[in-house]
Amino acid sequence: MTDLTPPPSTFEARLRQIGVERYHDRHPFHKMLHGGQCSIDQVRAWVVNRWYYQSRIPMKDAAFLSRVEDPALRRSWRSRIEDHDGTDSQPGGIARWLKLAEAVGLDPDYVAAGRGVLPATRFAVDAYVHYVRERPLLQAVASSLTELFAPKIHAERITGLLEHYNFATPETLAYFRHRLTEAPKDVAFGLSWVIDHARTAEEQDAASAALTFKTEVLWAQLDALYHAYVAPGHIPPGGWQPGEGLL
């Protein structure tokens, strides 16, 4: 029987094309943000809602690790939790995000409490955590591969925010600078693992669908922000209101 499984190079190209077509760097809200067209309240709404995603990433990774029997995979994956939670001697991504919150005038305690998060943001992020907790390991790892495309958006964000917003400094944007080195490290392992373990056409389809799902999680968060704070400007009950949670 002829092996109809596409070769690894074709599979990798397929994964990368998902980013070209679906990654949230194409979303209108990010174009506004990076181009200096967001008001300070729109930036604050983004910081409040993105916090919920950042805070759930180490929880997602811990749920993943609880299912992994291979010690080598656990060793490679657990650094992701430290990257976000930090260590006894080094702050992590969550602490850096709260520095950004403070820089835009938000009370870090308000943000850390998860107040003001849009219902659609909670739904999308929680769906991602459940996905990683429940789906086969191949799909769980593949869903993390949006990190393939993250360095580009982080670099654009650093440049755009520094150019257009007074709150932006190298210190307040430390979260994004650190991700420029953390994300490539993570994705090098994750991409290699997915390519090695997607041995059939069906497994490649499943991994591609997982990455597509993750791009939809990210896109849905920005759709919610845009609808609530840009056009038409309908903030749902419980969503952050301008003037709320400020220092």
UniProtKB/TrEMBL annotation:
Q: List the Gene3D superfamilies hit by this protein, alphabetically.
A: Heme oxygenase-like
Please name the top-level EC class of this enzyme: oxidoreductase
Q: Does the keyword Oxidoreductase apply?
A: yes
Enzyme Commission designation: 1.3.3.11
Please give the InterPro entries that the UniProt record associates with this protein: Haem_Oase-like_multi-hlx (IPR016084), PqqC (IPR011845), PqqC-like (IPR039068), Thiaminase-2/PQQC (IPR004305)
Residue span of the signal peptide, if any?
A: none
Among the GO molecular function terms of this UniProt record, one is: pyrroloquinoline-quinone synthase activity
Catalyses: 6-(2-amino-2-carboxyethyl)-7,8-dioxo-1,2,3,4,7,8-hexahydroquinoline-2,4-dicarboxylate + 3 O2 = pyrroloquinoline quinone + 2 H2O2 + 2 H2O + H(+)
* Alphabetical keyword list: Oxidoreductase, PQQ biosynthesis
Domain (Thiaminase-2/PQQC): give its ranges. 13-223
**To which pathway does this protein belong?**
Cofactor biosynthesis; pyrroloquinoline quinone biosynthesis
Q: Which GO terms describe its biological process?
A: pyrroloquinoline quinone biosynthetic process
Q: Which family does it belong to?
A: Belongs to the PqqC family.
Protein's name according to its UniProt entry: Pyrroloquinoline-quinone synthase
Species annotation: Fuscibacter oryzae
